[in-house]
Amino acid sequence: MQIYVVKEGDNVDYIASSMGIPVDALIYDNQIEYPYRLAVGQALFIGEYSGKFTGDGYYQRRENGERKNRIPLYVSGYAYPYISDKVLEETLPELTAIYIFSYGFTTEGELVPPSRNEDWMIAAAHQQGVRPVLTLTPLGSDGRFNNNLVAALVRDQAMQRKLLWELGSVMQQKGYGGLDIDFEYIQAEDRGAFAGFVEFATQVMNLFDYPVSVALAPKTSRDQPGLLYEGVDYRLLGAVANRVMLMTYEWGYTYGPPMAVAPLNMVRRVVEYAISEIPKEKISLGIPNYGYDWPLPYVRGTTKATTIGTLEAIQLAIDHGVEIRFDEIAQSPYFRYWQYGIQHEVWFEDVRSLQAKFELVKEYDLSGVGYWQLMRYFRANWLLLEEMFVRERGYR
């Protein structure tokens, strides 16, 4: 497995020939669309190739349908019920579990289902041998995380019992295979109570063979200040949940200044702190499957970035004839372009930034990766994951 960075004057025929692979394989693996234009600085996945390209998306070298049974990782990701059926179909074979986003709840402890029915996703997951997981969030009517709703729940045992009873009933009825608790902006005074709720939920759900995971804000120290961090106790939550997912993304975010979504130097600090508090075998590293496009100049409180996928970002660079650069500290690609008199700055993920994160998983011997979110399909990510954890150096 190699990564090729496009240079001035390159084309798909030259790259494929110089790397010793069929041009069809290069185009397919990297989702390069006709007329096969490339951006200078674009990173391409070059897989180990042997055998005849079949034309239906697989090579003879790949054991179709066996991948998730061979890769020594817990591979999960979040998805909304409005994911396209094509993206879901392509993604499910790569997963151990799919976290369906999301169920909410009221101050009376009543469960609030997703705005769109998710039964079809659960059925598709079961068909592929993937565990469908119900994601529970304290989202208010405005679509934002509500810490008052969290406080009401974690301070009221009767409300917890009612909610868990409803959760168990829905999970059994619909065919869910686990519960994920994704609470954010927990108040500092609810730190212990929140861990107590997760412990109670785990005890109840485990009785019915439902594992419980919890999503953790990306802390770098125990007493890190800030509303996002103060209510999250890594040691307590790591002890009571079956699995945790580190939300190692959103340094660059919609209303923040332009920067990498998941700069590797910061992700590393989170991992180093996490393994000091939580058993490695419980930890999944969060992986962003998206980037942002900021209009410039950035004005705090006014500027709003647009969410984009990797393929969209690359297409922007191609359309505007700009070079994709790579930040060595953040280990992340970025570029700037002009449109309608406004300059934009784009940060996104590519195979180089993903490779750096996967190497971190190996370095610290973490047991999984978890994607936010799976609404876009970036094929090279999954090919890279397989090459690095199954074929390259025989991990574990």
Descriptive account of the structure:
The protein has 396 residues and is of the alpha/beta class. Helix content is 34%, strand content 20%. The chain has 13 helices and 16 strands. It has helices at residues 12-19, 23-29, 67-70, 85-91, 119-127, 147-154, 157-174, 191-206, 234-240, 264-277, 310-319, 351-363, 379-391; strands at residues 2-5, 43-46, 74-79, 97-105, 111-112, 131-136, 178-181, 212-216, 243-246, 283-288, 291-295, 306-308, 325-327, 332-339, 342-347, 368-372. The strands form three sheets. The protein has an eight-stranded parallel beta barrel with strand order 3-4-6-7-8-9-10-16, surrounded by five helices. Strands 12-11-15-14-13 form a five-stranded antiparallel beta sheet. It has a two-stranded antiparallel sheet with strand order 1-2. Helix 8 (191-206) links the parallel strand 7 and strand 8 (212-216). Helix 6 crosses helix 8 (191-206). The longest helix is centred in the middle third of the chain and has 18 residues, at 157-174. It is globular. It starts with a strand and ends in a 5-residue tail after the last helix. The model is unreliable at 56-65 and 392-396 (pLDDT under 50).
